[in-house]
Amino acid sequence: MDLARAEALKKALRQSAAAARDSVPSELRSSLSEAVCDSVLRDVLEPLRAERGSKLTVCLYGAFRSEANPSRLADRCREDGHLVLATRVTGDGQGMELRRLDGPGSWGTGRWGVPEPDPARTELYPIEEAVDLILVPGLAFDEFGGRLGYGGGFYDRLYDVRRKNARSAESTIWIGFAFGAQLSKERLPKEDHDLPLDGLATENGIRWYDRRRRNG
C-alpha cells in the first residue's frame, strides 16, 4: 500500500474509532473509567509492587474529550505512596515530557485544550530516571498490541527517547488505557516506529501482549 492510501486509511479509521468512543454514553464514562482504574490497580500495580518490593513511579495522562479518565488511579497511587507523573507536550510542540503531580492543583490546560501538568506548579521529572508504568491513551487498540493514536506520534517519540536515555527503560511497562468499545476486531495498521504496547487495560481487565514483561 502506498503512503497516500495508507494515510487515507488511517484517517478513516480515526474517524470511525472516535465515533465508537464517543458512542459510550457520557453518564457511563465515569463508572467505566473507574473500572479501568480498578483493572490497573488489581492486575498491574499490586503484582508489580509485590515483584519489585518498593513504591512505584506511575505516569498517566489528562483525559481529553471522551477518553477514559485515569484520575481516580492518580488518587489511589498517591494514597499508596507511589510517585505520580503525567505527560505534557513540550514547549516546542515536538515531544513530550513527564512532570510530577502532587494533587488536583497540579493541572492546567495545554495545547489543543488538553489537560496537562502546569509547568509553573509542577516539577520536571528527569528523562533519565526510571518509570515503572506508563498509561497510554488512544482512539483504538487491537488484540495484537496495535494502537491508533491521533497522528501526532507523541507517544511513539516518548517511547523512543526513554528507550535510549532512561535507566532501566526495558523494565517500564506501557499499557493502553481505554474502554472496551475501543477494542478493534481487525488488526490496526502498524509501522516500525510505533510504540509497542505491553498490554491494554479496559473495564474488562488487562489484555497482555508481552508475557515476558508481565512475568519479569
From TrEMBL:
Q: Which residues bind substrate?
A: 67
**InterPro entries documented for this protein:** FTHF_cligase, FTHF_cligase-like_sf, NagB/RpiA_transferase-like
Keywords in alphabetical order, please: ATP-binding, Ligase, Magnesium, Metal-binding, Nucleotide-binding
What Gene Ontology molecular-function terms does this entry list? 5-formyltetrahydrofolate cyclo-ligase activity; ATP binding; metal ion binding
What is catalysed by this protein? (6S)-5-formyl-5,6,7,8-tetrahydrofolate + ATP = (6R)-5,10-methenyltetrahydrofolate + ADP + phosphate
Query: Which PANTHER family does the record match to this protein?
Result: 5-FORMYLTETRAHYDROFOLATE CYCLO-LIGASE, ATPASE INHIBITOR/5-FORMYLTETRAHYDROFOLATE CYCLO-LIGASE
* Name recorded for this polypeptide: 5-formyltetrahydrofolate cyclo-ligase
Give the species this sequence originates from: Cohnella thailandensis
